[in-house]
Amino acid sequence: MDRIAIISDIHGNLPALTSVLNDIRAKDIETIYCLGDIVGKGPNPKQAIKEVQKNASKIVQGNWDDMMTMDIEDTAIKWQQSQLSIEERQWLKSLPFSIELWISGNLMRLFHASPFSVHKRIQPWDSIEKRLSMFNQTDKTVNHFGVPNVIGYGDVHNAYLQNFSHKSLFNVGSVGNPLEIPQASYCIVEGAYQSRKNDSFSIQFIRVPYPIEETIQLTKASDMPEKEKEAFIKELKTAKYRGLK
């Protein structure tokens, strides 16, 4: 069986990314896919890009990645943009929208947020209609083989798996900004790669402790706007959006 590690939403958190990459290596997994939001929120977007470029074989674009080339009057976005070269921002803009592959007879599609846009968010508690819309074909998704029966995505920072009639929807959680428990999250998909024959198939969720205090100190030492520092640090400590319940 083949194994693919799927990471997402690093958000410039280098200690978390390093811990996850070390965990993947310890498991002897050679193939890594990244589902976007390499940058945004955290203090080390440039270093996160370099590590993802070096280690991931396939990468899709996230909403923060997309915003790095936009003219938006927002202090958080402006600071992130200031940390990157023009070439790095253009590279983020050039990333594909989705990945499609066969694995153990399952057609799996991977993207950042939804098949509609990197900015359109679908939560695990949304209506059944919204969640089933994740399997829709759109003009943005890669579509070489038909309608997928397995969808994997990032964006919402909540790892989960839900099964519908002959369909599975999973979220890999967040490496650098988890919003359920304060540990880095990623997934391992195991099966026969590029095989249309029904075979053993699994999705495994991995939690990795990482040195949160190191990320906090890196955030405090940066020249990021104080409001953004405080918000990110709250999220790191509480694993809740802006520290709220």
Automatic annotation (TrEMBL):
InterPro entries to which the protein is assigned, alphabetical: Ap4A_hydrolase (IPR050126), Calcineurin-like_PHP_lpxH (IPR024654), Metallo-depent_PP-like (IPR029052), Pesterase_MJ0912 (IPR011152)
Signal sequence, start to end: none
Domain of life: Bacteria
Residues annotated as domain Calcineurin-like phosphoesterase: 3-190
Family assignment from sequence similarity: Belongs to the metallophosphoesterase superfamily. YfcE family.
Protein name in the entry: Metallophosphoesterase family protein
Organism: Bacillus carboniphilus
UniProt lineage: Bacteria, Bacillati, Bacillota, Bacilli, Bacillales
